[in-house]
Amino acid sequence: MTAAFDLSTHGITVQDVVRNPAPSMLYEEAIRFDVGTTIADSGALIAYSGKKTGRSPNDKRVMRHTASENDVWWGPVNFPLDEMTFMINRERAKDYLNTRTRLYVIDAFAGWDPKRRLKIRVICSRPYHALFMHNMLIRPTDEELASFGQPDFVIYNAGRFPANRYTSGMTSATSVDVSFELGEVVILGTEYAGEMKKGIFTIMNYLMPKQGVLSMHCSATCDAKTGKSSVLFGLSGTGKTTLSADPKRQLIGDDEHCWSDDGIFNIEGGCYAKAIYLSREREPEIFQALRFGAVLENVVYDNAKHHVDFDNASITQNTRGAYPIEYMPTAKIPCVAGHPSDVIFLTCDAFGVLPPVSKLTPEQAMFHFVNGYTAKVAGTEMGVNEPQATFSPCFGGPFLVWHPNKYAELLAEKVRKHNAQVWLVNTGWSGGPAGVGERMKLPYTRAIVDAIHSGQLASAPTVEEKIFGLSVVTKCPGVPDEMLQPRLTWKDPAAYDETARKLADSFQKNYDTFQSGGDMGAMDG
Fold first, then answer.
1. The dihedral formed by the CA atoms of 303, 306, 311 and 312, expressed in degrees to the nearest 10
2. 196 and 317 co-located in one domain
3. Is 376 known to be catalytic?
4. 274, 320, 339, 403: which is the annotated catalytic residue?
5. Average pLDDT, whole number, for the chain?
6. Which phi and psi (to 5°) does residue 305 adopt?
7. Cα–Cα distance between 40 and 47 in angstroms, integer?
8. Which of 51, 89, 138, 383 has the fewest CB atoms within 10 Å distance of its CB?
9. Over the stretch 368-424, which tens digit does the pLDDT of each residue have?
10. pTM to 2 decimals?
11. Is 309 a known active-site residue?
12. Residue 236 designated active-site
C-alpha cells in the first residue's frame, strides 16, 4: 500500500491521501467506488463525467489582481473574478474535499523543456480524474518525484460539488477559476476532465509569452533525420489530429505546444483524442493507443462484451480518449524538436472559395492567425446546407489570456527569425459551397502536407488570387491541377467571385474588431 501523503499545507485534513498511484490501482479504485465505471474489451478504463460532457467556457473565471490585470485580455473569454470570491470558491472546494474518505494526488510536470516546465499538483476525489491527469501530464521519474517539493500550481478538483450560484460573479452551479498569483485552479460543478487540461493550458498561455515564448493550440511533428519540425493549427473538424498521426514522421504532440528560442516543445505528456467515429482502419495509431492505462470518456459499450460503439453519440458527440503519448508508435520522447520549417493553418472552408494550398507572407500569417477561420455546415432534413463562418483567434480563442495580437506578433517574429514558411491549407469544399461542391479528399490533403514537409512545394509555381491576395500553389504531386485553383472548379465564376468577396469582407470585419479592442466574434472550443 502506498504511504499516505500529507496535504495539510493546502488546508486538506483527509488522512487517506494516495500520491501518484499506479494505473492498476486507479483501475481497482474506480471499479470499486465510481458507479458506472468499467473496463472496455481493449483494456481502457471507461468513465463518465456526469451532466457536463464538455467544457463550460461561460463559467471560466480569472482572478483579477494588480500584478496581472493589465496583461489579461478581459472580456468574453477571461471573465474577471475578485480575490474574495476566488477564496470563497476555493474554501468551498476544500470543504468538499475534506468530506471525502480518500483523495488522490498527482504530482507531475507541464512542459517538456526543463528550463520552462511547471510543477503541477492535482488534488481530486475521483480515480478517473487522477488517471486522466496521470496520462495528460508529464510523468516524473522516481528521483524527480522524491525531490518534487512545492508545486508551482495546484488544481483543486471538487467537480462533484456545485458552486453557490448566489456567490458574487457566479452564473451557474459550475465555476472554473484560475489565479495566476496564487498558483491555483479551483473546479466546482463539473466533472468533465478536460477542464483540468485546459486550465493548465490557460496558465501556460499567460506565463510563456511573458518569457518571449509562443504558446500554441496546435499539433506538431518532426522529421526523424533532420529534426526540423512542423506545426498544424486548426479548429475542430479541420483534420489537425488526423494529419498529425503521420507514420512517416515523429509525433511531438497532438494539441498544445510552445515555440521558444530553442525550438518547440509539447506541454503535455499525453493525447486527448476525439473518439467519435473512431475506427482501426481510419486512425490505426489512435485506435490501438486506447488500451490498458487509457481513459475512454462518455462512450457507449455493449454489456455482454464491453465492446465500445464509437459511432454511438447518444451520450455526447464529444467522446474522448486520453492516453500517454508513448502509446503512439511514432512518438518522439522527449517531446521536443527543432524550429519549425513549416507552419500550417488548416481550415475547412464550406463556402468552397479558399485554395487547397497557398503560401502566406508573415503579414498574411498574422491576419489569418488572428482570424482563426473555419466554417461549419448546418444541414436540414431536406439536405439544404448553409455554411456558417466561425472565427476563433489564434485557433484557440477560449484559452487565450493576452490579447490575440500578442500571440500573432510572437508568431510573425519567430517565422521571420527562423525562416519558416506559413501555409494555408483548405480541407473543405471545392467546386462550390457545401451542398453543391465536393469535400476535398483526404488523400489529396495528405499529399499536400507531404509535399510541404518534403520541401517540394517551396519551389512550386504559384498564381496570385485576386480577392484574398493569396499565392496559390498550382502544382502539387498527387493532386489534380484543376483542383488547386478553386475559381476554375466552379461552374459559375461570377458566383465564385461574389461568394469570395463576401467571405473576405467577413474576414476583414472580424480582424478589425481586434485592432479596435472589440470582442473576438464567434468562438470554437
1. 30
2. yes
3. no
4. 320
5. 94
6. -115, -5
7. 10
8. 383
9. 999 999 997 744 223 434 788 999 999 999 999 999 999 999 999 999 999 999 999
10. 0.94
11. no
12. yes
